[in-house]
Amino acid sequence: MSDDLRELPLRERKKLRTRRALAETALRLFTERGYDATTLDDLCDMVEVSKRTFFRNYRSKEDVALAADSDLWSAYLDHVATLELDGPLLDTLRRALDTTLGAMDPDWDRRFLATRELSEGVPALQSHSLGYCQDTTRAMVETVTERARGDIDEVRLRLTVEIFVAAWRTASLRWTAQGGRGGRDGLMKLVEETFALLPDALTCSV
After folding, report:
1. Does 51 share its domain with 90?
2. What is the 3-state secondary structure (H, E, C) of the chain?
3. What is the pTM of this model?
4. Which of 3, 56, 149, 176 is at a distance of 20 to 30 A from 120, taking alpha carbons?
5. Residues 101 and 193 both lie in one domain
6. Segment 178-206, tens digit of pLDDT
7. Are residues 17 and 86 in the same domain?
């Protein structure tokens, strides 16, 4: 049993196991059978849970397909909500990403890569992913605003968060295009390289 499960009460451990089983099985079925060819009934039958239980864990078929994404950003937002924000915000957000990536479960990068590869061929998942990205960006702005010690300019804050998200997206797309080369270490290296390019990108000319 993993440490994060062992520390939880029994009821919470059961809920987390069910949630993980749904996500793992969904990703496998969507990859093997095809996203459109797999129904929620198929998924629930395979995991041996009711649809009611499914909807207690995920809002939709798209949500469970993108569980690796939501796992990362839920953990990230929880971490940012604990930080004392001081100094350049982009640097703080970047360090928080390193910490969150390092703390994800050992199998997360495999699931994330499979999710990204699946999404590339499914328009419904691409659309849902963009919507989720917008929701996450909004939540980041709200979280930072709540943690800020004083007044913070909304336009500058939103622009900083948008730059952060764009840098992450660029790095993760590069990693996916490379077939997940280097595993999580490879992803984190690309994140570091991409953020290092931001000053040059802001003055890029053609």
Report:
1. no
2. CCHHHHCCCHHHHHHHHHHHHHHHHHHHHHHHHCCCCCCHHHHHHHHCCCHHHHHHHCCCHHHHHCHHHHHHHHHHHHHHCCCCCCCCHHHHHHHHHHHHHHHCCCCHHHHHHHHHHHHHCCHHHHHHHHHHHHHHHHHHHHHHHHHCCCCCCHHHHHHHHHHHHHHHHHHHHHHHHCCCCCHHHHHHHHHHHHHHCHHHHHCCCC
3. 0.89
4. 56
5. yes
6. 999 999 999 999 999 999 999 999 898 88
7. no
